[in-house]
Design goal:
Strand order of the largest sheet: 5-6-7-4-8-11-10-9
Organism: Kitasatospora aureofaciens (Streptomyces aureofaciens)
Number of helices: 4
Number of strands: 15
Largest sheet: 8 strands, mixed
InterPro entries: Glyas_Bleomycin-R_OHBP_Dase (IPR029068)
CATH superfamily: 2,3-Dihydroxybiphenyl 1,2-Dioxygenase, domain 1
CATH topology: 2,3-Dihydroxybiphenyl 1,2-Dioxygenase, domain 1
Distance between the termini: 28 Å
Oligomer: single chain
Shape: globular
Structural class: alpha/beta
Protein name: Glyoxalase
């Protein structure tokens, strides 16, 4: 049964652990995402895929291109160039701090000029067993908004944070991002909630919101 007490999980913050805090702040300001994630200096080590991505949903293709261009100008590496697909238009970049960002839209054509508008930010956690991880979070109070079997689950926002949590099969997420699925060490992301601290089945750490 889902938890309904005041201690139920709600994603109130996403903190990225970075080696060079001033440089990461400059990148996030230039990219336009500094209002969505927090940054913390850390000597945590990782190698390969960190097991998550932050995905921006924006109004149209021109806005996708604008965000990706700003990211590259600020030092990001292109992992997947922006391209059309069956679901819309988008691309993927690797930030200088090692975080993978995806920018996409479901619109096939622009209805106006490019903007700096972000419709939604989703934190996609790559997990080994989507069904098991979904049960773990439902038992802690999250409400499932969308679910596609053992491949993907998205939760309804139930906190004050502006980032929506979701689960994706780890190998499927890596393939979508254009990176190898293998990775070791810290995820280098910490999630904030009034119900923290705890660690989920895939090693993602939650802490008490400050």
């Amino acid at each position: 049964m889902a938890t309904t007490t005041a201690s139920a999980v709600s994603l109130t913050s996403v903190t990225l652990e970075v080696a060079d805090l001033p440089a990461a702040r400059r990148f996030h300001a230039a990219f336009g995402v500094d209002g969505y994630v927090d940054l913390r200096a850390s000597e945590a080590r990782s190698s390969g895929f960190r097991g998550f991505t932050l995905a921006l949903t924006v109004p149209g293709p021109a806005t996708v291109d604008g965000f990706l261009g700003d990211a590259v100008d600020a030092g990001a590496e292109v992992l997947k160039p922006a391209a059309r697909s069956l679901w819309g238009y988008g691309g993927v970049v690797l930030a200088p701090d090692g975080t993978v960002w995806k920018v996409a839209t479901s619109a096939k054509k622009d209805s106006g000029p490019a903007t700096r508008e972000i419709d939604e930010v989703v934190l996609l956690l790559g997990v080994e067993d989507v069904r098991a991880s979904k049960r773990f979070y439902v038992d802690r109070g999250l409400t499932v908004a969308k679910s596609f079997g053992g491949k993907y689950a998205e939760f309804a926002p139930n906190g004050s944070g502006s980032v929506k949590p979701a689960l994706y099969k780890r190998r499927g997420l890596a393939k979508d991002l254009g990176v190898p699925a293998e990775g070791t060490g810290s995820h280098r992301v910490v999630l904030g909630s009034a119900s923290g601290p705890f660690t989920d089945p895939d090693g993602f750490a939650w802490e008490a919101a400050g």
